[in-house]
Amino acid sequence: MSAGEQPSETEHRSHSNRKVIHATCALHRGPVGFANVVLTKRGDEIELDPHVTGCCVITFEEDAATAVRDTITEWLG
Does pTM top 0.85 for this prediction? Predict the structure, then answer.
């Protein structure tokens, strides 16, 4: 994409359905914020890809994803 060019609807949709969050891996240790987790919305499911490798992908159906959201919201106050 050249400077000033707007992303296509498909590109925009794919970016809005994917989020990279910087985290810390407790198993491998390493610097804080070094491990990335990719969250992707695929239809009615939410997919978590720790380390962005595709080796261990966790998929939540809508009800489970809502429960995770509610729990995190409760914990954060």
Answer: no
